[in-house]
């Protein structure tokens, strides 16, 4: 709950509209601690909401129109709630329109609204700014209509918006972490059943994000290709999804093929999530650190979504931590942030080995 950001959004709304907002809703971003590129393979993941996120100040309208202002971009979009047409090129209105369209399919009785968006998540940093935007819009739409919905309904609508309006065949991890997570608590989520449990971090641990500053284009195509390769591997093995595959079945895939490398990552990564959750329960920092280091090597060598500059940053942080925790690339990859889990007391010394500012997620 980011009261400051909500107040900021409400002030911006009053400045924009000349009347007070009726309310302001918030949704956080998320960091994934471990379990990368396994959500769309029905696997297990361990994300955690961060403090930063998106606030949407709202006021209901009686004419069925949605007028939405992105305060930070000084841009406005307007459409009828009954006709949230898909923009030709994916951009921020795609997420708003997509969320309106998908939530309307699930929740009857939504009404028009003035919406003002304000956020404090770095864009493109692998912290799910798009899921945060979608869920915050969804919460504001529900509030404007005096309605409520289960977090999973919001999460599914946000995922559908991303698929149909932004062209990214994403899994459900980000949307579930944002809609149902609690900041400071890791969420062990089964992406097949959507069952989850929440696990507070030990007080002596800190989770830190380091933005590589690298932003790459064409990420959506590379992401969708990885997903297609995983699905092809599952078909060849003869399982519904790679969640059901085991290491022994990897030999059914062509030796050295991209499908085999992708599948090898997914099978081992799901095991690493289980190991990380056990390490978290035991407050075993060296053990969870080992899963992060192995996870990064797998993203680099088998899933091939890292970059040399990111590998260098991860190596420097891991060298600095010396086994007391660990670091890895977080999110879809090809740029963005690395996440480190480390002793809270070691956070100041970490700043010395990075040139960018640290974001203390917890
Ligand atoms: C993006 C997607 C998620 C997930 C991660 C990789 O964040 O939105 O669904 O696949 O990449 O783990």
Shape descriptor: globular
Mean pLDDT: 95
Poorly predicted spans: none
Determine the strand fraction and express it as a percent band.
15-25%
* Category from helices, strands and their pairing: alpha+beta
Helix count equals 10
Q: Main β-sheet, in a few words? A: 7 strands, mixed
Ions and ligands: alpha-D-galactopyranose
Q: Strand-and-helix sequence, N→C? A: HEEEEHEHHHEEEHHHHEEHE
- Count of DSSP strands: 11
Q: Determine the fraction of residues in helical runs and give it as a percent range.
A: 40-55%
Radius of gyration, CA atoms, in whole angstroms: 20 Å
Give the termini separation.
14 Å
Overview of this protein structure:
This protein is α+β, with helices and mostly antiparallel strands. It is 41% helix and 23% strand. The protein is built from ten helices and eleven strands. The strands form two sheets. Strands 1, 2, 3, 4, 5, 6 and 7 form a seven-stranded mixed beta sheet that branches. Strands 9-10-8-11 form a four-stranded antiparallel beta sheet. Helix 2 crosses helix 4. The longest helix has 24 residues. The protein is globular. The model has no long low-confidence stretch (mean pLDDT 95). It binds alpha-D-galactopyranose (GLA). The site of alpha-D-galactopyranose (GLA) has 11 residues, from helix 5.
